[in-house]
Automatic annotation (TrEMBL):
Species this chain originates from: Pleodorina starrii
Pfam families the UniProt entry points to: SET
Region (Disordered): 171-224
Biased composition (Low complexity): 171-198, 207-221
Protein known as: SET domain-containing protein
UniProt domain SET: residue ranges: 79-344
Amino acid sequence: MQSLLPFNRTSWRRSCRHAKQCPKDAHRLRAQVFRCVASVQQVPVGATRASPSAVGRPGEELPADSWYTKNIAIPRHVDSVKVAMLEGKGRGLVATRDIALGELVMATPPLVLVTSPQRQRPSGELVVDEILERRLYSSKWFSVLYDGSSRSCKSQLELAPDADAAAPAAAAAEAEASGSSPAAASASSSEAADAPRSARPPEPILASTSAPSPAAATAAPAEKKKGFLASRGPAMRRGKGSAAAGAAGDLGAAAAQLPLPDRREQTRLAKVVKFNCFGDDAEDLAACECRGEQPRGHIGLWPEFALFNHSCAPNTINYVVGEAMVVRASRHIKAGEEVTICYLGRPQLLPVSRRISILAEDYGFECSCARCTAEQAHYDKVEDVYMELFEAVTEQLGPAFLEARAAADEEGVREVQRQVQAWLRRLYGLFRKTLLAPDVRQYVLASLYDAYDLLLSCADALGQGEDASSLQASLKAIEAVSAGSDLHVLLAIRHFDETVRQHGPDSPLAELARQALRRAHVARYGPVSEGMMARLVDLNRKLHVESSS
Ligand SMILES: C[S@@+](CC[C@H](N)C(=O)[O-])C[C@H]1O[C@@H](n2cnc3c(N)ncnc32)[C@H](O)[C@@H]1O
């Protein structure tokens, strides 16, 4: 039987499906670095971190540096997007104004969050357990989030304005300003008393608010509880170091008395989790280092974030800071444009036919994003070479490289290098012959990232140092589809370092490489100061580049 929860929405770099068994050298190395595993069994759930040293004011984007100088709780921020009904997609989020590269689009607290001190994404079933255990199903979010039925993405809703959401954070911030501790301030307001470290996501504003949550309406008597909870051992029970955000206490004593929903409703809740949950093996490593936090594996439900639709070349980048899901514009977004994220993780860099089948299988929709549409429209012009090259790299040349390298067979590695280069030359020839538009070229090349990755590994194994042209080509392609991703940041650093090495720090090429490096970091971390940018670049160099070479 298929696993209940596929959870593909992870950062590409830590989500290699093959992990340690991966025939690709680069994936195997990453698997060692990140200790990613093909299937996460039971993971000890992490203890909550120490309280943040300060709490930001609600509705206000803090100077970007402050997020990375201390473990400040990130205040909720939603002011440049609104919910809209979109043809063929249900609801989605659209920009209410122009949004600049690196600008914060959303910072939102989780309704439920499960973390692990190990760098492993915990199982999605733990999220379902938390929801049941802490009676979070009485939240209106569970009656409006997508559950796989077409009916469920039709309810019209609005996101609460910033100020309503973060009353506890506001109380804490005010208290801090007045000299008392944030904790004392929280305790002084009944809502704040139960707030964990950041405000809970505000309930959605519904067009019709009369409907009770289906879960609450169909609740079965507590003693008859069955399903996920009943089948779990004591280690899965509440309080086991769980870092769930929306704790039972949030709902007060009345909620604690709520009976469990019946089995059918529990199944529906599991589907809500499946379609809307996000998880990753670790938070951003550089941000954690700056904030003095250990990176944690995590999985959770950020209901406002769950309203973003998918694109294979999205215009935002997202990851978790503290407990907040942070979404930044990875390029300029025009007012009225749909704001999208990518659900795919590493498979984002697969050919269009593979991406489409993964999305259909895991999320039940046929992707018609700009990248898929453009790639499909020109598919017949490049298909043969494109797919043959992809298959040759993954099935034949990748394994051949590993074998040759293990046997110290230099000629074998050279042969792999020659073959990949010959394939790419054929593809570039086709691009020229068919006059393929530059953006479509980049989309196709991003799907062939593995070929560049293999060339980089070959050059490394042959002691040729960095393969500058492969670095530059892959950086361009990754920026086109996945700006602000950890891969983008990593390639930008390697490309900059190599350019400086070859041409000197004051050369025009180094200046171009410096700008590319800056774009990657602004997309991911926002408009930070020069000093903070230098620190983040250094940390990313240390944490990623050095550890994977
Ligand atoms: C996390 S929800 C996103 C919000 C959802 N549209 C809603 O109305 O609640 C994921 C679901 O949205 C729909 N969806 C997301 N991106 C889509 C896209 N690019 N094209 C069509 N449907 C999409 C799919 O049904 C998918 O399973």
